[in-house]
TrEMBL record:
UniProt key word Oxidoreductase: yes
Full protein name: FAD-dependent oxidoreductase
Gene3D superfamilies named among the record's database cross-references: D-Amino Acid Oxidase, subunit A, domain 2 (3.30.9.10), FAD/NAD(P)-binding domain (3.50.50.60)
One cellular component term from this protein's GO annotations in UniProt: cytoplasm
PANTHER family for the chain: FAD DEPENDENT OXIDOREDUCTASE DOMAIN-CONTAINING PROTEIN, SARCOSINE DEHYDROGENASE-RELATED
Length: 440
């Protein structure tokens, strides 16, 4: 469906450990469960099932982590970025909301557990996440956010301007929300580690095996590839924004929103002592999102959304990112070179939380992560594996729904929302007497 940017252009492709040895499926095999898609969601699902003694096969059109799981910026922040917790409860109702909140707010624990259990080499550090108050009137919102998340058992706190500067090395912020349980990693390294773990636990992973059709056969489902197939009792589609065929109109359950990620050269030791000195991840608090962190080499890895010329003119895009980063951290004296710049796709739908679709008896699909990659994709495997193990639908943490097509307006609504929040930032910053960043 999407026009994917080259996978081998990413920083992660250059720095992640090698992928496990796999091959395309060239025969018909039997399985209890066939999982389509080797991203975080598909692989954590298969991992849970394999550990439970279930015979599971994963089919992947490209290679493990090819989609959003290998292209994202590597933040592991167990939150709901688009909605506050009270808004989420109103949106999806109980008992689903409270179950999902508990799953999501503990998702970083799940990631840490899998990394430790399977000794996954992926640059994992758990030094927290900071969301900044970009102007004074944002302070109260972040105070409420800390209260809401702490009430459900998360370990977060609001910090004042002085402590925010100590944590981030930037004097531009008016306070911030610190989530102490968050972390960051090399996302492709993590994906490849999950692939190894699936194989280690007895699951089968076939890459280069695009699914062309799923059809009933002898009371089971035949999942068809170019040269083989899987005959399974249950089928799970976990292809997200990188859905291409496989089930009629599944790729219409979301709309694509592009995002880009870029990485600088390694900063000097002196700069690293004053720029993000505690090696946290940070969201600079603006609606025109700028999120950044270090990788293990000391490169700043930052992400933004395309808007107008930004994302189309790559030289201009690099200049925008340089100007924003140096405005936040004027102590960076080096000429920044964004050697790596790549694009990914998000599967957006109007509720911006994952949707679990019942496609047919014994067949489900999960799409609509809307940009909540590492923690959300990892915790969803627990929900999908429970479905496959026969947990009643009423007891799952996501409601099983009929397939919904994303409305046409979702083709442009996310971009309009981004522009609206950018304009709102401008108004609030001016009203509060604060300073606007370059290109605002």
């Amino acid at each position: 469906m999407a026009n994917f940017s080259p996978f081998d252009a990413t920083l992660w492709y250059a720095t992640a450990g090698e992928a496990p040895s796999t091959r395309p499926l060239d025969e018909t095999v039997q399985a209890d469960v066939c999982v389509v898609g080797a991203g975080y969601t598909g692989m954590t699902t298969a991992l849970e099932l394999a550990r439970a003694g279930i015979k599971v096969v994963i089919l992947e059109a490209e290679q493990a982590g090819f989609g959003g799981s290998g292209r994202n910026a590597g933040h592991c922040t167990p939150t709901f970025i688009h909605f506050s917790l009270p808004q989420l409860r109103k949106l999806i109702g109980e008992p689903w909301a409270e179950r999902l909140i508990q799953r999501q707010t503990r998702a970083a624990d799940r990631v840490a557990d899998m990394i430790e259990r399977y000794q996954i080499q992926c640059e994992w550090v758990r030094n927290g996440f900071v969301q900044a108050a970009a102007y004074p009137s944002a302070v109260e919102t972040l105070r409420r956010k800390a209260d809401d998340y702490n009430a459900v058992g998360a370990r977060t706190r609001f910090v004042d301007r002085a402590e925010m500067e100590a944590i981030t090395g930037s004097g531009r912020f008016h306070g911030g929300w610190v989530h102490e349980e968050a972390g960051h990693l090399n996302p492709l390294g993590y994906a490849r580690g999950l692939a190894r773990a699936v194989i280690q636990e007895g699951g089968r992973l076939h890459t280069g095996s695009a699914v062309t059709e799923v059809k009933p056969e002898a009371g089971k489902w035949r999942v068809v590839t170019a040269k083989g197939g899987v005959l399974a009792d249950k089928v799970i589609f976990a292809t997200g924004a990188y859905t291409v065929g496989g089930w009629p109109k599944l790729d219409q359950s979301f709309r694509i929103m592009r995002v880009f990620v870029a990485a600088t050269q390694p900063l000097s030791q002196e700069e690293r002592r004053t720029v993000l000195p505690r090696n946290t991840s940070i969201h600079d608090g603006r609606g025109d999102i700028f999120v950044y962190k270090y990788n293990a080499e000391g490169r700043i890895v930052a992400s933004m959304f395309p808007m107008g010329r930004r994302g189309r003119d790559l030289d201009y895009t690099r200049q925008v990112m340089t100007d924003r980063l140096k405005w936040l951290h004027p102590q960076i004296r080096t000429e920044l070179r964004w050697k790596y710049l790549w694009f990914g796709e998000l599967d957006m739908q109007q509720r911006t939380i994952p949707r679990l679709y019942g496609l047919a008896p014994g067949v489900v699909a999960l799409t609509g992560l809307s940009g909540r990659g590492v923690p959300t994709g990892s915790m969803l495997g627990g929900i999908l594996s429970e479905w496959a193990l026969g947990v009643p639908e009423r007891d799952l943490s996501l409601k099983v729904e009929p397939l919904h097509y994303a409305p046409f307006y979702m083709s442009f609504a996310p971009q309009l929302s981004l522009r609206y929040h950018r304009a709102l930032d401008w108004v609030r910053t001016r009203r509060d007497g604060a300073t606007l960043p370059p290109h605002a």
